[in-house]
Design goal:
This protein is mainly α. Helix content is about 65%, strand content about 5%. This is GntR family transcriptional regulator.
């Protein structure tokens, strides 16, 4: 579902990234065409192409002239690392800073995280 509060081309890129991370799109698999994305989301093909080309520029996808776009070898690992880095910067680092302010030791913090897994039902 397209979210009007964010650029559509970014959402197209994120949709493809999510499919790669989840394994729905395997490495070396062909990605739907920009026309298919445009028809499915009822958007301009140029907008869909902008999202796909962003991933080509990042090395996540590659073009085969006359055939289409494909998932690059190593794309999943690269995306996972990028998301882990983002997770660390957005969540872990601020959590550690706040814990330090509150006098919570790293072992206490680790125990809090472990106990939260049982409350939230563990890993998905």
């Amino acid at each position: 579902m397209i979210d009007d509060s964010r650029p559509i081309f970014l959402q197209i890129a994120e949709e493809i990234e999510n499919e790669i991370v989840e394994g729905t799109l395997a490495e070396e698999a062909q990605v739907p065409s920009t026309n298919e994305f445009a028809a499915f989301h009822r958007i301009n093909p140029a907008t869909a192409a902008k999202g796909v080309n962003r991933l080509v520029d990042e090395g996540i996808l590659y073009k085969q002239r006359g055939i289409g776009m494909f998932v690059s070898t190593g794309a999943r690992a690269a995306l996972l690392q990028r998301r882990r880095d983002h997770f660390f910067d957005q969540y872990v680092r601020p959590l550690a800073v706040e814990a330090r302010k509150l006098g919570i030791s790293s072992s206490e913090l680790a125990e809090m995280v472990r106990s939260s897994e049982s409350v939230s039902g563990g890993t998905p």
